[in-house]
Protein: Tetratricopeptide repeat protein
Organism: Jannaschia ovalis
Amino acid sequence: MRHPTLLPLLLGSVLVLSACNASRDAEVARAIDAMETEEGGIRDIMLTVAEPAEAVAYFKRKTDAEPDVIAHHRGLARSLVRAGRGTEAVLAWREVTQMPDAAHDDSVELADALIRVSDWKAAEATLDAIPPTHETYKRYRLEAMVADSNRQWERADSFYETAVGLTTTPAGTLNNWGFSKLTRGDSEAAERLFTEAITYDDKLFTAKNNLVLARAARRTYTLPSLRMSQEERAQLMHTAGLAAIKQGDVDIGRSLLEDAIATHPRYFEPAVRALEALDA
């Protein structure tokens, strides 16, 4: 006896099962995406706002558990840099560059870690091994610093200029470039670069301090017209005062130190010690 209703029922069951499987597959895919997104978020937190030591411990656990995941090794290397553990950071970045999924940016990070431990020769060799077609802001900034260390001034200027053109936040690089000019004795060019750096980041105190030094090199000890806090003003007066004394303008230096002490919102111990030493 034939059962004409059996085939539609079977087909219906197959369709239901297919729909269930598709639904389960979609749920699994969403769960995996959520896990990856969550892990990426944790990784970002560890690399930015977490305590450096905590980040190092986190990524160490991850690399031990999943040694083939290059993202964990990169996180560990960056965390070691943040923690100031330079020698370990160099070793970690070397390990990253030897992994199958390593990229040119990893070699750039290795060069950065080498510069942080003052291994300039190794940093230069690392950068030289990167193809010239890999043109990034950080690569050129490091190239400029290496050229500076070799006193290759024209080469350094060229790399600094290229690096500045490759970023929307060039304050730090302009400050480095200005300091390079200052060490060469070109205080006017240095002053221009420090001033430009401050226009990009008016909270960059290092550039403000360097600007005062560049002006003091020409015996201009008045503070530049800058946006600064009361404490910053006192610190810059202290810098200008010490520069004046070093150049033999002792009376001007003493006056600046006294003004720095009077201006600082709290007890300004470095300026007090400098003034006492001068009077002694």
Q: What stands out?
A: Residues 54 and 172 are 27 Å apart (CA to CA).
